Amino acid sequence: MRLTCRERGKKWARTDSNRRPHGCEREQDILNPYHYLSLPAKRPRAFAHAQAIRQWQTSWPPVYDIYHAALKQRLDIPEATSRFITILQLGQTYSEAILAEALQQALESYCFTLAGVQELVRRLAEPAPPTPGGLAHKPNLARISVSLPDLQQFNRLL
Question: Which among 7, 44, 61, 96 could disulfide-bond with 78, CB atoms 3.0 to 4.6 Å apart, if both were Cys?
């Protein structure tokens, strides 16, 4: 879907707001790059030529370019671009900051698989698991004792 600021301005005028979005000039295209990632995923060579992607590249974190270049060194260019596009699609679910941090960690650990990046993103997005605490806050559990089994009885079964 491609809307110009002029068309969006009309939409906002209908909603009683005459202001254009910040940085939106007349006849400037407003493109959602995530909307355009499905086509280059099928045709990786179209990735570099998509207008939405080229606009996005000017503002995305530098680690994106570094990671894409590292993928190109390890894989042939269409496969590297296809994998990179799939990784970029994680940005629809997770924030750009989390994805950038995950890609930085992936570079540091030489992780160039989709599953590896997904795991790094998941670890960054989910809260840390609780640390096991002592039984000081539950005195009833501290009084329970479990006797150790007699291992000699297991030898008799043999």
Answer: 44
Tell me the three state secondary structure of residue 63. helix
Which DSSP letter does residue 31 get?
A: -
Looking up tokens 């096991």 gives 132
Coil, helix or strand for 28? Answer: coil
pLDDT tens digits, 93-141: 999 999 999 999 999 999 999 999 999 999 999 987 777 776 667 778 7
Can you give the length of the chain in residues? 158
Lookup: tokens for 137:
């806050």
Count CB-CB contacts under 10 A for residue 150: 9
Please indicate, yes or no, whether residues 7 and 85 belong to a single structural domain of this protein.
no
- For residue 81, give its domain range: 33-128
Phi and psi, residue 88, nearest 5°: -60, -30
Taking the model in full, what pTM does it have? 0.62
Domain count, the chain: 2
Q: How far is CA 141 from the centre of its chain?
A: 41
Give the orientation angle of helix 77-88 with respect to helix 114-125, to 10 degrees: 20
Q: In this predicted structure, what is the pLDDT of residue 9?
A: 45
